[in-house]
Amino acid sequence: MALALHPNFPDAGYAFLQAENGRDLPDVFKPNEEINAIEQGRHYGWPYCYDLSTPSPEFRIVLQSGVYRSLCTANALYKAPFSLLPPHGAPLAMLYYHGAKFPELEGKLLVGLHGYRPTGSRVLVYDVDDHGFPKPAPAPVRYHVSCAADPTHSFQTEAGDVAAAPFEELIAGWYRVNGVRPLGAPVGMTVAEDGAIWLVEDKNQTVIRIDRAAGDATPPLPCDMRSQALIDQLANFVAGDAQNGVRLTTLRKGLVEKHCVGCHSDFGLKPGQSDAQKDATVLRFMLSQDGWIYPGDPDSGKLRMRLRGLGAEKLMPPGGEKLPKTEPGYAGLRDTADLLVAKMVPGTRMRIKSGPPQRKFFGKTNKECGEIPAAKVVVVTQRNVVDKPGFSRFFRPADPYLNGECSDDDGYYIRQEFLVPVQ
Ligand code: HEC
Questions:
Q1: Which residues of 69-95 are buried (b: 16+ CB within 10 A; e: fewer)?
Q2: Would the CA dihedral through 349, 355, 357, 360 be positive or negative?
């Protein structure tokens, strides 16, 4: 959570605000986080109530009698949130800005959202009244869900759209974009004597100084997780490979339409599409998600991790632990998904030989593009590169191995002797 006191607090009527991390329901849009206006002796709901007045089902008994009776809906002890914040935003930093550097921010409330979901990773700016309270607006009040300008989502509870205090974004679009920038996760914030803002961010272990630059504003960085051109290229590879075409249809019908729709924006599927359109839609959806699929390297993608429940994160579909036993063919679908990814790019799969320093790879002009750990698999598209003797060209590796210095068009190259056949 985060706390902020108006400079005139504790004089009567001045704001003492708390930004709250709500419970972690699996739904991306539920529940909302909260800004509470703190008053002595009140209860703000956690963990018994979420959103504005929704009782948490597992506390039904607590809410039936005693001091917490009907806490969320009809109890003078409870004080509903002053405003909702984006769901899963995870506010950890909050302050009133006072400083010489940014007159346009003077007196405003800044809130840093640490959450890693597409509703977090940003710094909000609230316009406030004379007493330091953000100014609520009637529903719908919308917020960004991706670094693209649209679509925007409105603050909602089970009752539908609700009023909330609208905000602007001081840092927006701080999503990870392959080869362009990492995801940001603001934790703490303070104002320097000269009015610049210090921000501590823990995803990349950085301390950032927000200052005013001389000259023109820099153009916004691109937002796509994977460029449209690359998605087109990959979709064409799949379309041109009969076996992968079959695999894709199998997955679309047996996995996605049975077990994934209803969430993840239905993988983009719309009523009335032909079978071929459905296949293409599902593939393009998965390719446009951050880190789901790294062609040639199924082990690195979240799709495989989630379908098999590897690692700490939740199995997909949620609650699907028994599917491999109860549904004939389900286990095979997961292998089909791995094969689709492994064979997505035409070329030869090869493994990176163990031991340093051969893990480095380069662009066409010898610019260093990153390092791939030993034993990782890449798809080699040219074993002997004519104009780069001693090197092999491979398809772009998984993002975590890119240092952001190279572009796909320039190609990725590694010394031939550092590649060994996949057994
Ligand atoms: C009931 C809704 C629901 C269904 C059904 C569902 N998912 Fe999810 N999925 C979520 C939510 C919510 C998250 C994010 C929360 C989390 O990280 O666990 C998520 C996360 C994921 C992630 C990780 C995303 C990331 O960026 O980290 C992948 C991959 C994924 N799901 C794939 C699938 C696939 C494939 C299916 C079908 C087999 C599926 N999901 C079915 C709700 C669902």
A1: eebbeeeeebebbbbbbbbbbbbbbbb
A2: positive
Q: Relative to the CA of 291, which ligand 1 atom is closest? A: 26
Bond prior to 389 in cis (omega within 30° of 0): no
Cβ 307 vs Cβ 314: under 8 Å:
no
Residues 117, 100: Cα–Cα separation, whole Å: 33
Determine the distance from the C-alpha atom of residue 160 to the mean position of all C-alpha atoms in its chain, rounded to a whole number. 24
Cα 414 to middle of ligand 1, angstroms = 34
Do the Cβ atoms of 223 and 145 come closer than 8 Å?
Answer: no
Task: State how far the Cα of 92 lies from the Cα of 18, in Å rounded to an integer.
Answer: 10
CA of 307 to the centre of ligand 1 (A): 9
8 Å CB contact between 317 and 260: yes
Burial of 181 (0-12, 13-18, 19+ CB in 10 A): middle
Q: Which two tokens stand for residue 240?
A: 């041109």
Residue ranges, the chain, pLDDT below 70 = 147-151, 178-180, 221-225, 404
The predicted-structure confidence for 315-348, as pLDDT tens digits, reads as follows 999 999 999 999 999 999 999 999 999 999 999 9
262 CA to centre of ligand 1 in angstroms: 11
